[in-house]
C-alpha cells in the first residue's frame, strides 16, 4: 500500500465515540480483555469469504486466544502513540478489520474493552465511516468512482457494466471471496478520470472493458500492479493493517504524482509563472 492512501479522518470530540469517560491512564480495558464473553448474535467468520480467520476455542463475538494476544500486542503499540487511549479508536477499527476483512462483533468488543469504551460508542463510530465494513469484503476491494467528473467520463458506465459482469453490488463480495465492489465518491484523482481503486491503490483512466478485465485478472490470481504506487497489490486485510498505522514498507514505492497532475507545474515553469507572494 502506498503513501497515496487516504485514511479516514478522526472524529471530533462530539462524536459518539468520544462520549464515554476516559481515565487517560493507559489500557483501561486491559484486565477485562481476558474475561470477555462477547455478545454473540453475529455469524462466525470461520470460512466466510475473504476472511480466512479461524475462531476455534472462541465464543461467538470473541477472538480465540492466539488472535487476541496478537491483536493486543499491535493495539498497545498503536494506543501508545496517543495521549488518551480512546483517540486510537479509528486505527484500532482498521486493525480488527485487518483480522476479519470487516469490523466484526468480536472486533467491536475488542476495541471497546481495550479502550474502556462502551460497545455502543464503538459501533456508533464504526458505522459512521464507510471505510469500516459491516460484512466480509473480498480479498480485493474494488472501488469505482461515480462522483461528478468520473461519472461523466464513464464512471457510471463502468459501475453498471462491472456490477452486471460480477453479479454483485455495492459492498457485496463475489462468491469466491476474491472481489468486492464499492461505489466511491471523489478519490482526489480527477485528472485521471474515470478512476478505480483496488485496496486503495489507483487504477487510472479506466474503461468498462479494462475494468472488467482487471476484475477477471484479480479473480484469476494474476499479478496486478496499480497505475501508480507499489509494483504489487496488497490484500484488503493487509491494506487495513497499514491504515491501522502498521507500515508494510511499500509507502515509498512508485511515483507520488502522475504526469497529468504535474502538467500545470510544467506549463507554469515553461512560462516563468510564479505564485504571488503571500
Ligand atoms: S471525481 Fe473521480 S476522482 Fe474526483
Architecture overview:
- This protein is an alpha+beta fold.
- The protein has two domains: 16-126, no CATH class; 140-234, Glutaredoxin.
- It contains eight helices and five strands.
- Strands 2-3-1-4-5 form a five-stranded mixed beta sheet.
- A hairpin with a 2-residue loop joins strand 4 and strand 5.
- The two termini are 36 Å apart.
- Bound molecules: FE2/S2 (inorganic) cluster.
- The site of FE2/S2 (inorganic) cluster has 11 residues, from helix 5.
- Belongs to the complex I 24 kDa subunit family.
- This is NADH-quinone oxidoreductase subunit NuoE.
- Keywords: 2Fe-2S, Iron, Iron-sulfur, Metal-binding.
- Its cofactor is [2Fe-2S] cluster.
Secondary structure layout:
Elements: H1 65-79, H2 89-100, H3 105-115, H4 119-126, E1 140-145, H5 148-166, E2 172-173, E3 179-184, E4 196-198, E5 201-203, H6 208-219, H7 236-243, H8 259-270
Helix pairs in contact: 1-2, 2-3, 2-7, 3-4, 5-6
Bound molecules: FE2/S2 (inorganic) cluster.
Number of domains: 2
Number of strands: 5
Mean pLDDT: 83
Alpha plus pi helix count: 8
- Bound heterogens, unique: FE2/S2 (inorganic) cluster
Largest sheet at a glance? 5 strands, mixed
- Based on CA atoms alone, the radius of gyration comes out at 20 Å
Strand content: 5-15%
Q: How far is the N terminus from the C terminus? A: 36 Å
Helix content: 25-40%
Strand order of the largest sheet: 2-3-1-4-5
Cofactor: [2Fe-2S] cluster
InterPro entries: NuoE-like, NuoE_dom, NuoE_N, Thioredoxin-like_sf
Family: Belongs to the complex I 24 kDa subunit family.
Keywords: 2Fe-2S, Iron, Iron-sulfur, Metal-binding
